[in-house]
Amino acid sequence: MSGDSGTSVDGPKTPQGVFYTKLPHLVNSTGQYLFCKYWEPQEQEPRALLMIVHGVAEHCQRYEELATELNKEGVLVFAHDHVGHGQSQGHPADIKSFDEYVQDVLQHADKMRAAHPGIPLFVFGHSMGGAIATLAAMERHTLFAGVVLSAPAIIPSPETATTFRVFAAKMLASIVPRFEVGKVDTSFVSRDPAKVKAYEDDPLIYHGGLRARWAVQILGAMDQIRQRVSTFQSPLLALHGDQDKLSLPEGSQFLYDNAPVTDKQIKIYPGFYHELLNEPQPDAETVRTDIVTWVTERIESESVQH
Length: 306
Hints:
Layout: E1 7-8, E2 11-12, E3 25-27, E4 33-39, E5 48-53, H1 64-72, E6 75-80, H2 99-115, E7 121-126, H3 128-139, E8 146-150, H4 163-175, E9 180-182, H5 193-201, E10 210-211, H6 212-227, E11 236-241, H7 249-258, E12 264-269, H8 283-305
Parallel strand pairs: 5-6, 5-7, 7-8, 8-11, 11-12
Antiparallel strand pairs: 1-2, 3-4, 4-6, 9-10
Helix pairs in contact: 2-3, 3-6, 4-6
């Protein structure tokens, strides 16, 4: 198994050396073990589900605050670390096909829907996770009661995809698929220096270079979203900072303008950077409130309809 840190009688371990038997996990369709995280409401039975789909190089446990806020509204929140991320198996920042991310999300979503029938399922995707969530919604039109996107990767920024680097990545992807073609510039993550430092110091975040093959896959996924936008039919909340240098706000605007769905909203936050939930207070709180309000309004309208 790729990315496996060794197996024994207790089975496979995470890249950090912990047995998956001791952790919540799922095994995906290619046999890789993915670390899972579940935040359950304490005061009531779940009245909705929400799946968090994290971005490149990061991991799902960074969304604790959002999950906790949603728990207060009776939402059971769940997530996993993508292949090659956090505590999941796989080679860091490398993927043979972007569809692997999408299929893992659909598998986990189906598992949770089966365990909690009769309540609505929402999805929240950040950055690359926004692209994954969008493609999952395009593939399964009736799966999600709503799609919330934070800085979705739909139009690449000049900083992350210059013509030369795209050309070089395509050349290298077939010859040296794991060649490093660039890193996440941490200064673009947030305007809050403490949050940037926390990002830089987080051992579960991948701080190495992004791979040529991954770069080709993410650019292909963005192209696919733009080409298939007419198939996006889920209720949509698109959120973006107008100073985002890692994924352009024009991507959120494109999806909002072209998705053929009546229930859609867009919020472009003036001055905000890429990680909207990690901006300085009270800005991050504003974004969290916007998300929770939008989701709870749709839970309530769903319960009225049923």
